[in-house]
Write a structure and sequence with these properties.
With 267 residues, the protein is α+β, with helices and mostly antiparallel strands. The protein has 4 helices and 10 strands; from the N terminus they run H-E-E-H-E-E-E-E-H-E-E-H-E-E. A hairpin with a 6-residue loop joins strand 3 and strand 4. The protein is globular.
């Protein structure tokens, strides 16, 4: 009888050792897979950012040289710094910059397929970073409208990741202005409201045109939901700019910045 008990005890201990070994091996395997995937992620996002760096260099060289005739689109003339880039990809709609941040990217627009550049680079190849892209209903040339620009919040700090820092009022005070170049002119926008919400009805996605019934409601909602008072007041009829990215601190969260265009002589 004692021998049978001893045998059962040994079998039980053996199963425990085997199970622990399996768990350890599974844990090591999972860690290796996670490390590989994380490494691949950062490699791909780094390559995407390097591709954007090349676009920035092309822009700077074109601006510096300013050679050749200004390319016409309709009755308007493309600024020298964007001529080469526009000739390479006519989906280019402008360039967005916030001085002192990492936000310095081309803005793309494909109204027939709005999120085309959500996961594609300037060369139209697949990209985890994607590019900044404009809402299908937004119009750069409309007065009193709202230009909505979307971008990813990347873990490596690229694209619109820096927008999350605007939750801190001091950060806003250091970076209160947004520069938006269309293909034809440079504009300056003053940040009026910063909201972090997961209630999409409280965010200004339904307002792109001054004729939209949601226009005044969107402006009022952003003002009431703003994380702090910037002192910049949005009113119906202002030329508005909205930047939007994901905020992973809450389910389906969004970080949204709404700004108004400064007077032309202040641009």
């Amino acid at each position: 009888m004692n021998l049978e008990k001893e045998l059962r005890r040994l079998q039980k201990n053996l199963k425990k050792v085997t199970y622990k070994s399996m768990l350890q091996k599974a844990g090591i395997g999972t860690a290796v897979v996670c490390t590989v995937l994380l490494g691949r992620y950062y490699l791909e996002t780094s390559r995407a950012e390097e591709a954007v760096n090349q676009l920035r260099q092309t822009k700077e060289i074109s601006q510096r040289d300013g050679a050749g005739e200004t390319e016409a689109v309709g009755e308007e003339r493309v600024m020298p710094e964007y001529q080469t880039l526009f000739s390479e990809n006519p989906d280019l709609e402008g360039w967005l910059t916030i001085e002192g941040t990492k936000v310095d990217y081309p803005v793309m627009w494909t109204p027939e397929d709005p999120e085309y550049y959500s996961h594609r680079g300037f060369d139209k190849e697949k990209s985890k970073n994607g590019l900044l892209f404009m809402d299908e209903a937004s119009d750069m040339s409309e007065h009193g409208g709202n230009i909505i620009i979307y971008g990813h919040n990347m873990k490596n700090g690229s694209m619109f990741a820096d927008l999350l820092k605007y939750k801190d009022e001091d950060y806003y005070k250091e970076h209160p202005l947004i520069r938006l170049d269309t293909l034809y002119e440079t504009r300056t926008y003053e940040i009026a409201s910063v909201a972090a919400d997961n209630d999409l009805e409280e965010l200004p996605y339904g307002f792109t045109s001054a004729s939209d019934p949601e226009a005044e409601k969107a402006i009022e909602a952003m003002e009431s939901n703003s994380l702090y008072d910037t002192g910049v007041v949005l009113t119906y009829g202002d030329d508005c700019l909205t930047l939007s990215t994901c905020d992973y601190s809450k389910e389906n969260g969004r970080l949204v910045i709404m700004a108004r265009r400064a007077a032309p002589d202040e641009d």
